[in-house]
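Notes from the 1:1 (GR / supervisor)

We went over the backlog. Supervisor wanted to see one worked example end to end before approving the batch request, so GR pasted a single chain during the call. The sequence is below; no edits were made to it. Supervisor asked that the structure be written out right there so they could see what the output format looks like.
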Amino acid sequence: MTQVDLKLKTLRVNLRKYGKIIAKDVAYRYHPATETKEEICVFCSSTSNITKEHVLPKWLIETELHNTMTSVVNKQTVIYNRALVPACSECNNSILAFIEKHIIRAIQNMDVFNDCSNYDVCNIIRWLEIIDYKLQVLDCRRKYIKYGNSEYDHDWGKFPVSMMRHFLTMNPWKSYSWLRNSQRRITIKEKIDGLNSFVVIRPCVPNFYFFNLPNEYIFLSFPTCRIAIFYFFKKRYKYYEYAAAEALDIIKKVIESD
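Structure output shown during the call:
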């Protein structure tokens, strides 16, 4: 077992053991009726040495630190460099940082050697699942405030973005189940069944680009490596070509709507 395998195993074990506690804390911490309490690590539930973990790694957004991502829920933006979630020093600086070093090498190999082993692809998938989880945690920590350029919403402004995402379906507590689903994906070791759901796009746009739909898919470009990746979190495909065609269709629609 390699060092990165051990780090990923620790992450899986922690979320299996503490996932429910973490999800309840994250999902309801910023509800208006919840009293302020001590921060916990969203990966192991520790309350010691809490640091701030970037949702999108700094090495990925180093030239885009002050650019923003926009929530489809309320059309409010957050600067990449301020998109942070709480993580203890051990999880942040030891586990996640080590995993990301491995991911950087794997993505660079995609560029240099035009290939990537199934082992590396599975680890990139695991990394994308971690990002999806962090994005959902971020939604739970951000307040709705208002929609677009409208005035502050006095009825719903204090509620988390994650709850308002499900407002129209009259099921705001669904944000908790989504969070648990994202945790469960991380706790599953095997990722082989997702290989055909992992799409590599060449060449990519010459600048960083990112979008996601929680629990459904994520797109990230790596301009320095001249590639982009798209991954379906739940959909499974018998043939890679089907996934690639659907991914390209989604990318086209998102870019055209910007």
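Supervisor's comment: The chain has seven helices and eight strands.
Batch request approved.
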